[in-house]
Amino acid sequence: MLGLELDPDKVAVFAGIGCSGRISNYLNYSTVHCAHGRALPFATGAKVADPELKIIVVMGDGDCAAIGGNHLIHAARRNVDLTAVVFNNSIYGMTGGQKSPSTHVGDRSTTSPFGNSEPAFDLCELARAAGATYVARGTSWAYRQLVQLIAGGLVHEGFSFIEAMAICNTYYGRFNLTADSAEFLRLQKEHAVAVDKFDVDGPRLRDLYPVGVIHHVERPAYSDVFSDMRQKAGGRGGG
Predict the structure, then answer these.
(1) Do the Cβ atoms of 123 and 135 come closer than 8 Å?
(2) Does the pLDDT of residue 228 top 90, yes or no?
(3) What 3-state class would DSSP assign to 185?
């Protein structure tokens, strides 16, 4: 996988409900298709049960940041050793084009036909603030870079969060940018700015956002800390 020579028998993919969840049908690994928003707690349980597993969690922006938002912040806070890949198409693409937590102010959708009145989450900053130790963003346009960012998350020990800027020309593009998928990809090229050239004090906008490794630090992963606590608890009262 990505040249990392991972043991296929020790890779598990957890997918949420949404367009992104279909990825489990295309991967030759053990996969779990979870309830909407619940992929991260399922994955956390698997990692605690078998720390040797390489866990990959695939979610959409709504799946991750709406009903699953609470799970996101706590998985990041705990620094669970897994790689979360979030396909962000800025809308609910599978269920009819409703606005999501990453739909920007002014964007139109089936539930905001005159423009969205709510600000969007910057998912990378949300994960970083919650405690994620590896945070990156890539695009469908620059897929080779995205592959490398995901590989970086896989080798990192701790909670890795990779936002993959995806396209939904059927709903989001038709309402806001363009219904032409090729043109949508070309717009990604224009909107993406290398993280070292992006104004870090400025907000991530619909038409301007940083790509690359945004945050990377090291601290003990949750499974290691949990294992230490179990050993200490098991040693109490022993004679």
Answers:
(1) no
(2) no
(3) helix
